[in-house]
Amino acid sequence: MTVYKYFIKIALRNKWAILSYTIVFFVLSIINGSSPTRGETSFVEAKLDIGIIDNSNSQLSNSLKDYLRDKNHIVDVGQDEESIKEQIFLEAADAIIVIPKDFDEKVINKEKSVEVYRDDRKVESIQIETQLNKFFVFLNATYKDGKFDLDGISTALNEKIHVELIKDGGKARNYHISEWFRFYFNFTGYVIIATYIAVMGLVMADFTDYNIENRRKISSKKFLKFNSEIYLGQLSLASIITLIFILGSIVLRGKYIGEVNFGIYIVNTMVFSFSILCLTFLINNITRNKFVINALSTVLSLGTAFISGVMVPQQFLGKKVLTIAKFFPTYYFVRVNDMQANSFSDIRYEFFMQLLFAIAFLFTGLYFSKTAQKV
Amino acid sequence: MIVKVNNLVKRYKELIALDHFNMEVEEGEIIGLLGPNGCGKTTAINCILSLLSFDKGEIEVFGKKMTPNSYDIKQQIGLVPQEVSVFDNLTVRENIDYFCGLYVDNNNLRKQYVDEAIEFVGLKDFIKFYPKKLSGGLKRRLNIACGIAHKPKLIFLDEPTVAVDAQSRNFILNGIKKLNKEGSTIIYTTHYLEEVEMLCKRIIIMDNGKDLVSGTKEELKAMITTSEKIVVGFSTVQDEVVEKMKNIPHVIDIEKDGEDYIIKFENGFNNLTNLLDFIKKKDLTYTKLHSQLPTLNDVFLELTGKELRD
């Protein structure tokens, strides 16, 4: 087991690569865990700054304007589309509603009656859509004999809704805990890619150095035995790194593991770890250049973490980005963590995909390995 | 016969690296593969060791056909490559232990072998050093220790003294002699003539992938048929007199070597008598006069028409 022994020895001589990632990761996890629980205790309907351009000036459009004026602050805005967009961009208005000339007709025909320009950067601007929907639902409900009951609508819309937040029975805390585990394990994925490729890549670059490899080739050590010891070394190292992060979650939030699907997090991390181990195997069979390995470690870990939803949740990522992310196992790893599934059957597709990637990496790596061994 | 290479041809597309190369190595000898850089020495070794495939020819080592899977043969072979091939992240002792471990599984035996190898190359005071901290000469010694720790019967040394200081060079050369005395057969490649003359019982001269000639150094030097060199030193001599020396019968060339002159004659004539007559006639006083034995470089020059270090 000389090869195994020295694989581990050389890997540990690169301990700073592992330690630097681990320390930064744990510091971030501790900071994240120490932030106060974000729970809402009151509900306030916010007034928005909106602009209204009324090209219809009918009784119906005035009724809409009155309703919106009551709910929001009205600001002056330009008339043309470019000017409207400029106002939104400069945050002069949260939303601008354009009422067309044939507003009444469109309402009667149940067509899209108004044009809404909204500041997507402000989550609360969605409120204007809700208000408009509410108005049109009420309006359509009162349509009878070619007329609208505008007084009735006004009365109905002015009814205040009393919103009272009832006690959540600890759901906010549960949400915070599961968020912490989600964040922790998603970032574990990022660190696993970075450390596996960097550390194992650098160790393998030493073992596959042309001259050192030649010394091994002329030795009486059988290729299969040599490879077995190398793979055992890689597996041991991967297990140690994965174990550090699993134990880290227990040390930092051990008392809450019963409140989340901890088993799924563990199995998902192990499956992902195996998949990345196979990816590392492939990379090691493609290049022995330490600069390339370092670059790949950074690019693949950061790149896949970003597009797969480690840094930014998947629901905020564009369709095209997510389509690209699907070509990496990180996407499926993050999906499992984000899903908070109740059973393994809910996430079997994601596990299957990660294992499929592992097999693909392994076989491609074996192909390159065989090619490289040809005399 | 420990190694037998017959009509070995190795091509890299248009380039012929080995052109029907032949070599035979007897057990217990040190054989020198001598030739200029790029003549195919390392390619020949790599083919023998199955590190490279070849286009034509047969290779037998220890009486068996050599293949990449000839692990029983490989157990008895040691290689000291031209480049220092060690792990930067392992200490001197760990490096030797790792490479010895590729041949020897038994821990106690390996420890003994590693200790002996360290002693042999004189790196006892450096066992905990990383290669980066070693001088060029010490690195070369480590490179040798990694190749011979498992006590192979056949050792390939590929230019092991390139870029080392004189002290380390002598240490290495004496070490090689010692290995040979202990029973190892050695195949030594170099382009340093003096090393081959000092070490090798038999020499193969290579150029352009071919084995030009082989034999003992005496046999090779006896092959010189075209020239004879006489070294002469004068107390005082004028340039025009030296110029006139060129008119002595059968003189080919005159070279100045410090204060002395090396006069190259065609072989097989009374050259010394003719030179003495000239000195007497010109009333010159000589301080030195002797015939110079041909060197391996002369042999190479005669065979190829170029200097070995061209």
From TrEMBL, chain B:
Name used for this protein in its record: Putative ABC transporter, ATP-binding protein SagG
The keyword Lipid metabolism is assigned to this record: no
Entry's Gene Ontology molecular function annotations: ATP binding; ATP hydrolysis activity
Keyword Nucleotide-binding: yes
Alphabetical list of SUPFAM superfamilies matching this protein: P-loop containing nucleoside triphosphate hydrolases (SSF52540)
Pfam families cross-referenced by the UniProt entry: ABC_tran (PF00005), DrrA1-3_C (PF13732)
Domain ABC transporter: 3-233
InterPro entries referenced in this protein's UniProt entry, alphabetically: AAA+_ATPase, ABC_transporter-like_ATP-bd, DrrA1/2-like_C, P-loop_NTPase
Keywords: ATP-binding, Nucleotide-binding, Transport
